[in-house]
Amino acid sequence: MGPNYHTLFSRTEIDARIASLGREIRADYHDRSLTVLVVLKGSFVFAADLIRAIDLPMNVEFIGLRSYGDRINTSGVVEITLDVKHPLAGEDVLIVEDIVDTGLTLEYLMKNLSTRNPASMKLAALLHKPARTKVHVPIDYKGFQVPDKFVIGYGLDFAGKYRNLPEIGYLDPPPLDH
Ligand code: IMP
């Protein structure tokens, strides 16, 4: 990484936080069976670790969303690029998201999913950037709060890059127009 890269959370810190979230989720759901809904693409790394930290029966599904806007800012216009095949009616759905920034993407998704009548719907988000909130989205299981920086790594990209970085950090000076 270049000189403008700064670490926020190491792999060890991430692992410990996820282990704790997994225990919390297991305790809350007791022995119920979960439908884990992974929001692509950014959440796949977090989801891969989180599901292995949850000792419950589960079904894992994926949904693809595209938020319109420039490379960094969400406009609030969201398109489903890959939908869930499995019906969600009566399921205990746990949405797994990488980061809640403005909240617009999650607000859209949660409204859309609630029309499918799940028995319950909760949100696990690895990161929360409260400085940029436009709509409040309740995060039931939160990994870490992050400052108002464009964060990368552990699944999060900038212009398609850095998803494979094993830890979470940010670029300062930031990429264009943030
Ligand atoms: P929101 O609709 O503004 O909450 O943005 C949600 C989506 O924007 C996330 O799921 C990410 O894919 C992306 N995003 C927002 N902030 C960042 C960031 O700091 N780094 C990488 N992706 C981000």
What does this 3D model show about the protein?
- There is one protein chain.
- This protein is an alpha/beta fold and 178 residues long.
- It has a single domain, classed as Rossmann fold.
- It has three helices and nine strands; from the N terminus they run βαβαβββαββββ.
- It has helices at residues 11-29, 44-52, 104-114; strands at residues 5-9, 34-40, 58-69, 74-82, 92-100, 120-128, 141-145, 151-152, 168-171.
- It has a six-stranded mixed β-sheet, with helices on both faces. A three-stranded antiparallel β-sheet has the order 1-9-8.
- The two termini are 20 Å apart.
- The model has no long low-confidence stretch (mean pLDDT 94).
- Bound molecules: inosinic acid.
- Inosinic acid (IMP) binds next to strand 5 and helix 3.
* SSE pattern, N- to C-terminal: EHEHEEEHEEEE
- Span of the ends, CA to CA: 20 Å
Number of helices: 3
CATH architectural grouping:
3-Layer(aba) Sandwich
Identify the strand order in the major beta sheet: 4-3-2-5-6-7
What is the strand tally?
A: 9
Label the overall shape: globular
The hetero molecules present are: inosinic acid
Largest sheet: 6 strands, mixed
Low-confidence sequence ranges: none
How are the SSEs placed, and which strands pair?
Layout: E1 5-9, H1 11-29, E2 34-40, H2 44-52, E3 58-69, E4 74-82, E5 92-100, H3 104-114, E6 120-128, E7 141-145, E8 151-152, E9 168-171
Parallel strand pairs: 2-3, 2-5, 5-6, 6-7
Antiparallel strand pairs: 1-9, 3-4, 8-9
Bound molecules: inosinic acid (IMP).
